[in-house]
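Hi again,

Forgot to attach this to my earlier email, sorry! This is the prediction with NDP bound. I've pasted everything inline since the attachment limit keeps bouncing my files.
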Amino acid sequence: MTSKQAPMNQESYEVYNPADGSLVGSVPAGTPDDVNNAVSTAWEAFRSWSQTDPLDRSKLLFSAAQLVRADQKDLARLLTREQGKPLRESMNEVAGFARVLEYYASISGTLKGDYGLSKTYGHMMVVRQPLGVCAAIIPWNMPVLIMGWKIGPVLATGNTMIVKPSTTAPLTCKALAGCLYRVGVPESVLQLVTGSGEVVGEALARHPDIKSLSFTGAVPTGIQVAEHAAKTLKKTILELGGSDAMIVCKDADLEAAAKGAVSGRFFNCGQTCTAIKRVFVDTSIYAPFVRRVRELADALQVGNGLLAGVDMGPVHSKRQRDTVHSLVQETVDNRLGTVLSGGKIPDSDPYAMGSFYLPTILTDVDPDAPVMREEVFGPVLPISEFDSISDAIERANATRFGLGASVWTHDMRTISRATQELDAGIVWVNQHLRIPPEVPFGGVKSSGLGRENGRYALFHYLEEKTILIHP
Ligand code: NDP
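Structure tokens for the complex follow:
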């Protein structure tokens, strides 16, 4: 099934396991009327939810996190079945969702206002109030964690929320909402409207009574969403992906860097916005680095994510897999790089029904090749070499994206320079891909606008009101 499949009938979308094509479940195909109803219900709920004590909201979020942890195995199995990722990754993602709720539960109500006393103006107060009804549009690649990032700060600040999950991975999001309802979060406070982006997503973006929209997905969709949101004066957060560079310097711990490259690229079958999508290696260690990366990548077990020992599942859809394969083909056909490993669709029996692609390493890749400049959302690792750190930073920045980047070295001068000059929302040193709930997350350039995660997200969901009282 493709990720842009039409509904089987006018009322529902069927969800298929990308590993074997089996039916996992179905969700209703929502309509603009469903969005209108959800918005009025959410405004009604906002009146009382925004007045609840932050401590009570915290208790609910803590209880929900506890329930999610108790149901972790079932939720993870469902996530693997609908999304394809290995069970171990699904377990971590579900735990990550719980951790995000716990984090926001622990800081709910901590963002206070301000006060000053002036002879001229009297008491000068700034209070922070919730916005009202907020919405989120969620993709299929990390639906659980991304839903946590979006609902955590919204619910903690007393706003109400409407979520549109992806049509191809909506089931775990629905089950997670169920966990929140079971502990007492009203269904009117957190609503899910399932259905396509063109219908439900667009109706949310265009709705005049939604105050904030947080979107994660592709750049063209994000721009379209932002245009509609601007016309209705919504605050927007856009997380539009990346083409993260990894710079491996000559003094780097080679083993740690090789392992970092393989896990940073092939995790979630390469379908992560902050995955390592380009590697630049100092010429003096290029050969041993490439050799070790190849050994590690070739050892990855590819298969159905439900099976023990599987390291990498299928690409989420055949459409996505074919896009990835054509980018690899284009690189080879135009002599812009060489396939060292993988580069093909496995054709033997266990893979026949799924959208699998082998872990692929491309070497000696031309820095101007499309695989180096665009976001390749699949298991493809292009590697090239550099002579100087200036050259490496320049190449790392030579993309329209600016989500993340990492530098692997222990030299303080290089660390200081690279962390300043790399054009990205997050820069890692000797690690990649790790994002604790405490830090802000978002990109520069075409990677998006605004920040999610951390206490910084609370600022987005609260509006300052100035009150001046003359005695
Ligand atoms: P999309 O941007 O199309 O989908 C992301 C979400 O937006 C889905 O929920 C989708 O709904 C919804 N959507 C689609 N069209 C609209 C619209 N007109 N108005 C409002 N919402 C809409 O991404 P794709 O799934 O097509 O993936 C394409 C590429 O995007 C990937 O190859 C990757 O490069 C990038 N991507 C980046 C992600 C990231 O983490 N930054 C996540 C996902 C994709 P629907 O259910 O109909 O798909």
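The two ends are 68 Å apart (CA to CA). The longest strand covers residues 122-130.

That should be everything now.

G.
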